[in-house]
Amino acid sequence: MAAAAALNPQPGERVLDLCAAPGGKATQLADMMRGRGVLIANDPVLPRARELSRNIERMGIKNAVVLSNTPSELARSFPETFDRVLVDAPCSGEGMFRKDPLSRRYWTAATPALCAARQKEILCEAERMLKPGGTLVYSTCTFNDVENEGVLNALLQSLPDVQLNAFTLPGLPDALEGMLRLWPHRVQGEGHFIAMLKKRGELEKVGLAKLPAKIEDQSIHKLVLDWVMDKLDINDQLGDTFVQLPAGCPPLTGFRVLRAGLHIAQRVGKTIRPDHALALAGEPRRTLPLTLAEADAYRRGEVLSTKDQVTTGFVAPSLDGWPLGWAKASDAQLKNHYPKGLRKYSMSESENYV
b/e map of 315-346 (b: 16 or more CB within 10 Å)? Predict the structure, then answer.
């Protein structure tokens, strides 16, 4: 995760992870932002973006927006918008050959040049979205200089407002020329290339304005107060899902939005239910501790007992203090609200999962 560490986002900033799936670096960026600011996590390939959205949800991240659009589509709407941009570009993957021998089958002598052409296009769009004075980190998991130094040289020649910037990371060699190669026989991990660029100008720090509410049903607020102890601001709706967009979130009209901030509640017919993400990101008022076997059963979608506890309404079954989702208590039983799309773990698989 050295590329995310090099970008070093700060709380309160606008940050773009342009090629974010499956989400390892995006979740690391969100952790560094401490829930403040806006993280746009994008991947143009829809199935990959869906996996990205699930990982953002599982990590309880409140201030991320997951999109699935091309870099050029984003750049048209987000000119000079972001303080920091990460481009962990699609590449030939030579640095992964040791970890994933099957990836060698897809490599040909023409692969680096084909990847480099796409990387140049992505970087040009990324630069358009970077504020003056902002930071852009470019990374690949390949070794050849066609996709690494070659791409950067082409970028610097075509974009005179961008320049390489020296950086250091703990435990790694100093990148005095703004570029760092990580060799798998010298460091723990696989092969990577990381470069840091700065856009000329003075970075203007702008406070992120709170967004006005756009929901008509105000009764939702009372329901949420009964579910979690968090102070939440429901300010928008994505279909039948009530959401809390982070302060300073740019307009999302026209984009393919998979996740918009924190999903709080869903309208199902005439009822409103807490969203699965709310249990993972918030602090539920009522929890029910489970054993490992009970947690296994819960994730399979089974009905559980309330263990003689006198409670009704939505509760959060938990394992070792961590909420797993929602269940509705009634008549000493818990009706399971664990999402059906996540009910895929057998007993043996779940032992490894936990």
Answer: bbbbbeeebbbbbebeeeebebbbbeeeeeee
